[in-house]
Amino acid sequence: MDKLFELILGKINSGIILLNEQLNIEFWNSWLEQYTGTKACEVIGKNILDIIPEFKKNYYIEILRNAMKTGQNMFYSAAFHPIFLYPCNYSEDMLIKQNLQVEPIFYEDKKYISLQIIDISNQFKRVNMLKNQIIYNKKAEKALKESEEKYRLLITQMKQGVAVHELILNEKNEAVDYRFIDVNASFERLTGFKYKDIIGKTILEIVPNIDKLQIEKFGNVALTGVPIKYETYDEKLNKYFEFVVYSPRYKQFAVIISDITLRKIAEKQILHLSYHDQLTGVYNRRFYEEELERIDLEENIPLTIVMADVNGLKLINDSFGHIMGDELIKKVAEVIKKGCRPKDVVARLGGDEFVILLPNTDEDEAEKIVKNMKDLALREKVGSINISISFGYETKRNKDDNIQGIFKKAEDRMYKKKLFESPSMRGKTISAIISTLHEKNKREEQHSLRVSELCKNMGIMLELNEHKIEELKTVGLLHDIGKIAIEEYILNKPDKLSVDERKEIMRHSEIGYRILSTVNDLSEMAEYVLSHHERWDGKGYPKGLKKEEIPFESRIISIVDTYDAMTSERSYRKAMDEEFAIEELKKNAGLQFDPKLVNVFIVKVLGKEM
Hints:
Layout: H1 3-11, E1 15-20, E2 25-28, H2 30-36, H3 40-43, H4 54-70, E3 98-107, E4 110-119, H5 148-156, E5 161-169, E6 175-183, H6 185-191, H7 195-198, H8 203-206, H9 212-224, E7 228-234, E8 239-246, E9 252-259, H10 261-275, H11 285-295, E10 303-310, H12 313-320, H13 322-339, E11 345-350, E12 353-358, H14 363-378, E13 381-382, E14 385-386, E15 389-396, H15 403-440, H16 442-461, H17 466-478, H18 488-491, H19 499-506, H20 508-517, H21 523-530, H22 552-567, H23 578-588, H24 595-605
Antiparallel strand pairs: 1-2, 1-4, 3-4, 5-6, 5-9, 7-8, 8-9, 10-12, 10-15, 11-12, 13-14
């Protein structure tokens, strides 16, 4: 093979294999030697089908035979198929994503196939993967030297652009110009220069205003033999290119051009993801920590750090689900960004916490910015939920102040604010939950009001104190609050519930407990709601409590809730008459219900005989 073209093929940043008509390997470039660990002398003359694993053999036979049979100068793309090469040092880490281009080549009376293997996985493979790992396999008859023309065809059909140049020197032996000796079709496609217009001409004849530094740079490669590699962006084409320049012979240099636009886009996307919070689009903790080091300079003093925390996120997640919680987080991020200036840095630290860096901002200016964000939050809602954010801030005034200490003070102030602001937000959220539940199911609203009134009457008849009576009335109103998380179609289903739907409904007491336990004033009531479906005989849920293990208030709710459920119209049946309901309570006294409390309810509250 002509040494010039052998050198060019050896420098291509992808694998090149040449097969003859019998699919014997006749050429294996140095790129493959380097990255597979297999020397050309080990594979030249071997048949590629003998070394492809059985489970892939039929697939590749079809590709190769089809290319040979059609005789068309075409590309066959086989993306993302791992190719195994034996006897390479194979391991799982060597699997990569690839593009395989298969082209038939005609030379004199012989047919050949060139395989160009291109790695497209640079951004995704593991650190210990071999770069541009590509593989094929071997068996053959002989190792032949082919003419320059055969290998010229290989270069012509490659994806990368290739141009070979001859250096022009002045009398001082300085590079002043260079002439085009040869280019391939991809060079024409990538640069827009046509073969017929540039071959034999110099670069200054084609591009008179070319940067002289480029001529010097390329000239240095041709004279010293030291290769260079660089990337550039072409504004006109809106593409990124990689250039590899090396010298195949003294005073000559070859340029290999690769379109790396997709790779650069992927790099930008990965960089964006590595520094941005995926949910909100603001910066993430990693960026904040790096930016804090960069911004912690005397020129940015006074530097204010603002901590922000979303109030009631857990309550909303438990009540309305994490989708609603995510919407709340996104809305808060929008409010904070809108309230800040372009130079300010907003980052989500995780969960419900945000941090804001305000360079060249004193306490007074920070107070105005925080007030603006609070005002914006008051005008926003997520569904029926108001947005509430607690803020705390601290300012670095002297260059010797420790920035982590400033952060800690801002965080402490935020938590103090949260102690006062969060309970109010939770109370409003509870009201919003009740309203939303009643909107989903009007029967639930009437049911809760009736249970609340009957619980109050039970408290009066049991001669409880005024606080306990009011507590019973409230817990009666809230006992089914956990149904907010149950699908509306289940709550309103006109037919009998399936086993799975019944299990879903049974979750409501636990959900109600989680909702109410977040509010300090309602934490005791949360226990009563949790146990209002326990049974006197221990066969209830969720804990299987029995007799006096069940909270007193829960035993009252159980009786009242069951009575009202029987005497009210449901989506799947009509209301039962009062006599029937009373008989059911009597039958289940000592089984489902506290017998003493059943007696009080029937005789004193309903005014009926036992």
